[in-house]
Amino acid sequence: MTAATTLPMDLDQLPAKARQLRRDIIEMVYRARSGHPGGALGMADFMTVLWYRHLRHDPANPRWEDRDRFILSNGHTCPILYAILADRGYFDRELLWTFRRLGSPVQGHPSVRSDLPGIEYSGGSLGNGLSYALGTALAARVTGRNYRVYCSVSDGDCQEGQTWEAAMAAAHHAVDNLTAVVDYNRCQIDGPSDQVMSLGDLPAKWRAFGWHVLDVDGHDYQALDEAFRAAAAHRGAPSVIVARTVIGKGVSYMEGDYRWHHGFPDEERYRQALAELAEAPA
């Protein structure tokens, strides 16, 4: 293991860190006048637990061969990933404010072609990321490397057939260095997912496909921390953390409203969002 890997942050420090990241999301989307704030805000808590407590990585050596890999299948939620990478020192924080500008490496979907450090996968069409994550996890087995792969998927990802093909293959091959995290906010761009195309009993579906399932409140730091720990310890099958989240979490007028899947706040709502995130209890 490289000596420069980051030490885990104390659990009680995570809420303040997540608030900071949420403010960065609002700032990016407001300045760009476009983006997908809702999902990014909802994912902030489990992303903070993962990136500040569990993921083995080295900002000074982004291509370290034994680093854990994070695959963002729901690539439109990239503001939370960009905010974390900048905060961890992968690139200059000032780049965040070029989000979605022509020529910026900080685009509306992450791309490995941008050469932005810390980006492992070009996220675009939903449904592809878990297949890529599976291949990456199998590569560790073939090459004898010691790393884990984490893949974030959304409601929309779980409506795609390719996701379930990858799930079936991962269980068949007992790929236990793979953990999927479902951002289960029950919303998507066209409306509540139960109305667009119901996912039914989602944890039961993953169990039926042979996965080790951890069903948790996606905003409970203790529960998330324990889930990531349990996933890493499990042997003989891939793990999935079904994180029940609230779209737009932390900003009152966005919470639970699928219409904030995409869009940007006007100046009044921008200032309201930053004020609410500054005042949120630890």
Task: Explain what you see.
The chain has 282 residues and is of the alpha/beta class. It has a single domain, classed as 3-Layer(aba) Sandwich (Rossmann fold), CATH 3.40.50.970. The chain is 40% helix and 12% strand. It has nine helices and seven strands. The strands form two sheets. The protein has a five-stranded parallel beta sheet, sandwiched between helices. Strand 6, helix 8 and strand 7 form a beta-alpha-beta unit. The longest helix has 19 residues. The two termini are 33 Å apart.
What key phrases describe this protein's structure?
two-stranded antiparallel ribbon; 282 residues; 7 strands; single chain
Low-confidence stretches: none
Under the CATH scheme, which class? Alpha Beta
Shape: globular
**Helix and strand succession?**
HHEHHEHEEEHHEHEH
The count of DSSP E runs of length 2 or more, i.e. the number of strands, is: 7
Number of domains: 1
Q: Rounded to an integer, what's the Rg over CA atoms?
A: 18 Å
The CATH architecture can be given as 3-Layer(aba) Sandwich
Number of helices: 9
Strand order of the largest sheet: 1-2-3-7-6
How far is the N terminus from the C terminus? 33 Å
> Could you please say which CATH topology applies here?
Rossmann fold
Class from helix and strand fractions? alpha/beta
Question: How would you name the oligomeric state of the polypeptide chains in this document?
Answer: single chain
Q: Biggest β-sheet, characterized? A: 5 strands, parallel
